[in-house]
Write the structure tokens for this entry.
Amino acid sequence: MGPDPKAGFRPPLLNRIGVDSLFSFSGRDSGASPGDDPDAALNALRTVFGYASFRGQQADIIDHVVRGGDALVLMPTGGGKSLCYQIPALVRDGVTVVVSPLIALMRDQVTAMRELGVRAAFLNSSLGAAEAREVERDMARGDIDLVYVAPERLVTPRFLELLDRTKLALFALDEAHCVSQWGHDFRPEYLQLSILHERHPDVPRIALTATADVQTRNEIKEKLGLTEARVFLSSFDRPNITYRVVPKKSERQQMLAFLNENHGEDAGIVYCMSRAKVEDTAAWLNAQGREALPYHAGLPASVREANQDRFIKSEGIVMVATVAFGMGIDKPNVRFVCHLDPPKSLEAYYQETGRAGRDGLPANAWMSYGMADVVMLRQMLEQSEAGDSHRRVERGKLEALLGYCETSGCRRQVLLNYFNETMAEPCGNCDTCLDPVASWDGTIAAQKALSAVYRTGQRYGAGHLIDVLLGNATEKVIQQAHDALKTFGVGKDLAKTEWQSVYRQLVANGFLTVDLEGYGGFRLTDAGVAVIKGQRSVSLRKDPVQERRRGVHDALRRQTGRGGAGSGGSSSSGTRTSLSAADDALWHALRDCRTGLAKEQGVPPYVIFHDSTLLEMVHQRPLTPDAFARLPGVGSRKLERYAAAFLDVIHEHG
Ligand code: ADP
Ligand code: ZN
């Protein structure tokens, strides 16, 4: 029998500040002004959220906002933006209004806040009139700390009038990039939010976004009237994500092997370009014994919602989706994001892969990429050849994407560089860093490949050209008399797959263009002609013959060496793959305990505890409430509600 954690136990800190069911960190009752207690924010972090210390710029941002300053916070996904307004909401006197664009997001945030014992609510179209009135009453009375509101409701006369009667602590504008007309998530209502400042000039504002795009940032400042706000810019690197691009052979099999090796029980997302491919891939994964669900805009809303809900509330489901899926998903333990087709741009890639590893534990971004993809991207590029500036921008984006896929350097350097961030050293956590890619002088091979294009009349794609180079007397070769060409059989020094790699790179690097009629016939560009004439040399990437597979465990070990983004300041946590058999049994038992509690309450499991907290339970094996209270992610409310259940499980596995 373990000790009864409810028997009058309180962590020392709680006794000191006298927290009961309500949290009060400011001088609310004493009439002191916010910011007077320098420890208030840290106390809130520890007692409510159960974290030991602030991360990155959180402390500075929170201090600035608590003192009444305006802030624009640019931080990547998983960086810890929410705390930047949630803690000021607890510390400052009055109600904090959080503007959030998506109902699902609001619901999840409010559920999580209530689990922490914070007085939070949302106002949106999913509430009945009576429920909404109740929230409004609580606001006017000051019986609530955080209210999440949809932008369209915020600017209604009724709500504006309610704000006039409410003591306001802070306006938080989440997903602030929604103000940008050029982004994917444009919400016209965001443009009206400057009205808040006009009506309440003394209430500080904090706008937050994970957009890495400089244009959008400037737009946010301007459109929200935040030109005077202090800007807090964090690095957009996501050190816990391992980036990989593999040459496509049989994409599904390659992906399945990768998942089996690294993510046997993990949840993740697989992106495909078309709805048909989404459905096929999901069905195929299920047939292979992997639980997978489809998601695309062509499915009935009820199916989409049900699938999303299952993905969020269960463990280990693979969501196969078009890009219609992802916005507003803040499931922290998405362990992998796979792309079976290339994304639209590097921005899109960053955003889509960014849904992995919000919790800071190791995660994988995996893309398969081959000749057909390059041809398709090139065709898109050719189509946008016309001169206007918008098309030039589109071209630049496609070139950047091709450059990322074909690089033999560090992928993270390419990615961050695209967002105007420089990384001095290669990252050590992408495929090219882990398994360095050799480059070779491909000038002669390129000359052979290009002259095969030229001599066959610039009409054929890679398949036929490679037959010519290899000297394969196929029916088509004979029919076209291509066996009589000087290039027939001159390429026997390389294997078929190597020639495929050569052609792919010649297309990707702009030595060949692709005709638009859809047959994918190659034509020489000026650069290609220069190579044939011996005026230019060509350096090529040697595609890895067989990609070496590495577990997430390896990624973690490397990561701890460079002080990665492990939660709670502890770097000893790993993912399941790094656990011994006994630890593994405990991990599963803890996860079952969490699932049971989550089901009872109808909430996602991660709202009870994040994986990182469960992993710390496995590593530390706390046996007393005191020890349990010290786990990252265990605040006073969760200690009170859940310590007993989880301590029982740990005792059983002692
Ligand atoms: P964002 O909104 O920037 O994507 P979140 O606010 O969801 O990020 O935070 C990402 C994860 O990091 C969450 O699991 C959160 O609980 C955790 N986290 C945030 N701040 C801290 C901190 N100071 N210490 C430990 N964990 C933190
Ligand atoms: Zn790298």
The two ends are 11 Å apart (CA to CA). Residues 51, 54-55, 58, 75, 77-83, 332, 358-360, 567-568, 610, 632 surround adenosine-5'-diphosphate (ligand 1) (CB under 6 Å). Confidence is low (pLDDT under 50) at residues 1-22, 27-32, 547-574. The domain at 439-541 is CATH 1.10.10.10 (Arc Repressor Mutant, subunit A).
